[in-house]
Amino acid sequence: MTHIRLTPLAQSLPATVPFVGPETQERSRGRPFAARLGANENVFGPSPRAIAAMAETGHWMYGDPESHTLRMALAAHHGTTPDHIIVGEGIDGLLGYLVRLFVGPGDAVVTSDGAYPTFNYHVAGYGGTLHKVPYVDDHEDPATLFAKAAEVDAKLVYLANPDNPMGSWHTGADLAAAMASLPEGTLLVLDEAYVDTAPDGTALRLPLDDPRIIRFRTFSKAYGMAGARVGYGMGHPDLISAFHKVRNHFGMNRAAQAGAEAALADQSYLSQVLEKIAHSQNQIAQIAIDNGLSPLPSAANFVTIDCGADGAFAKAVLDELVARGIFVRMPFVAPQNRCIRISCGTPSDLAAFAAALPGALEAAKKG
Amino acid sequence: MTHIRLTPLAQSLPATVPFVGPETQERSRGRPFAARLGANENVFGPSPRAIAAMAETGHWMYGDPESHTLRMALAAHHGTTPDHIIVGEGIDGLLGYLVRLFVGPGDAVVTSDGAYPTFNYHVAGYGGTLHKVPYVDDHEDPATLFAKAAEVDAKLVYLANPDNPMGSWHTGADLAAAMASLPEGTLLVLDEAYVDTAPDGTALRLPLDDPRIIRFRTFSKAYGMAGARVGYGMGHPDLISAFHKVRNHFGMNRAAQAGAEAALADQSYLSQVLEKIAHSQNQIAQIAIDNGLSPLPSAANFVTIDCGADGAFAKAVLDELVARGIFVRMPFVAPQNRCIRISCGTPSDLAAFAAALPGALEAAKKG
């Protein structure tokens, strides 16, 4: 293998994946899941207008590398300019570019222990040093995060609001107030993937061009287009323009861009979906209660359920659910790993979950 | 901007783009192009089965991060195993991952002066030192490339076969023979994006798992799915598995994966498209001859036309074509920049080109 000379950094990286996909699990199970409730997808799907826009796209043409019309529409939606917006291949892709721009070997980055693993994957991938702070009362905690950032001179500090996997959230006003303690030299990476399903006032209440922050949004959650891979970042134009130095300029799927634009324009469909998600949240919570478990309050398109014991027990419940054809996931880290996380589903998805849960709990208790 | 602390490398990078998209040009022109013949897209589009597969996809689900069924189908198509195949967001995306895996600051990389600029963009983006060798008789020249690679101890050497922008090619047997002079420690990055339109025997005649080579293919050209962003690499499993350390695991558009699989399965449609492309090549060549210009032989889905003078003249011809609503591009570097490059088009596209060319030439001669 003398021709395969990876960089020392690439050589050192593990061949791990942040998440094992449900298709991989189905292949090892030998049969499909009855309900797909593990990836916080939106089973209600995108606006019919978005589906039509994607179908009508001329697939033979490369997408516009500037995502111009989508950025124009997003700028109008958010009351800003296209220069404040970068569109990319999902938030995952944009987080990769951001980390690449900021983090070299040994650079410090701060996140919460148990927060989004794909961010951590990118930090490791560029040789950064990741510092983790604990959740506070099942919340990612700005004060703890920013104090650690000051201590280690972090270039980036990651915060998801609402949080995944716990579904907890801060108000945008509280978060804005907490920003007073963000240290000089640290950029807040604010992941607002789930903000569309959150109570009004959850989005950060600060100007979009505040140079201390980049905030990310997505069409994968409330807009129901996870398969399309469309995310965007909003921030100061000096920061946004840096993405153009490293991004895959022709990386955006043309149909996906058209679909996102159509989805954004159909806010009445979004409202309907948000109602379905809220209804589904209530159903999941009720199923949990019916089984003697404790649903946590959620601002996201999932409900995290406290199984009432330790991580081993919750893992056993999860495994028993998976064995019964219900794809779900759970937090990675104690004490949050006392929970399982159920994405909102259709009534029939949730009926399958409700049917499987008692047996799964019984088996987990015996195990 | 004290919160925006880019890495020294990111700071040093220019905010250039490898290509300006036709949409950008249309916006600055204030009107659309009459014919889109500049990006080597395939105007004949994908198989109807691929279009249907994309339309039928559940967009709400993330794509399979392993692209398992597509990799299985590609493995069967190429007579290899899925472990020899990496699927990614176009060859552009995969080139980015490859360069990231191999190239750190100061590492040497070799390419031809005037070859694919997006590869160069990635090398610069990771701090590599790019060494360029001239074309030989309008061909990327393996002997020259490999000699330079030996001289500078290159980690990567890039070669497109067929070549873009000249349309020239080597036989797979000649290339295999030339491999004897590939130095130890250098990986050949063989871009076979245009091999599907090339004469039989153009694909490299060496085992797919030869550890000295990675070869790239795409659904953007002959398969007519540039907007979908599906490329793949083939190589030794030890090399292929390295991609999993750095790639955006959930980066693939789900519909695009389904579309690529359907397109691959419809080889009879591909054959029909290849006939249309061949016919279009002949038409472009004839239009060139009718205008006193010299079409170069082409193995790709475009024809490069020698305008018979220097780069300034060819640029004037190109500008005049663009002004007349014909989107075309041209080589960047002398002496190849004596040419303009015309992608295959529909009969009406080429009629528009034929109508515009005499006036464009006349204006360029006057200019």
> Can you tell me the CATH class of the largest domain in chain A?
Alpha Beta
What is the percentage of strand-forming residues of chain A?
5-15%
Rounded mean pLDDT of chain A is 97
What is the 3D shape of chain A? globular
SS-based structural class of chain A? alpha/beta
The CATH topology of the largest domain in chain A: Aspartate Aminotransferase, domain 2
Gap between N and C termini of chain A: 47 Å
The helix tally of chain A amounts to 13
Describe the strand arrangement of the main beta sheet of chain A, using strand numbers: 2-8-7-6-5-3-4
Order of helices and strands of chain A: HHEHHEHEHEHEHEEEHHHEEHEEH
> In the CATH hierarchy, what is the architecture of the largest domain in chain A at level 2?
3-Layer(aba) Sandwich
Radius of gyration of chain A: 21 Å
Oligomer: homodimer
Poorly predicted parts of chain A: none
The CATH homologous superfamily of the largest domain in chain A is named: Type I PLP-dependent aspartate aminotransferase-like (Major domain)
Largest interface: A-B, 91 and 91 residues
Cofactor (chains A, B): pyridoxal 5'-phosphate
InterPro entries (chains A, B): Aminotrans_II_pyridoxalP_BS (IPR001917), Aminotransferase_I/II_large (IPR004839), PyrdxlP-dep_Trfase (IPR015424), PyrdxlP-dep_Trfase_major (IPR015421), PyrdxlP-dep_Trfase_small (IPR015422)
Keywords (chains A, B): Aminotransferase, Pyridoxal phosphate, Transferase
Family (chains A, B): Belongs to the class-II pyridoxal-phosphate-dependent aminotransferase family.
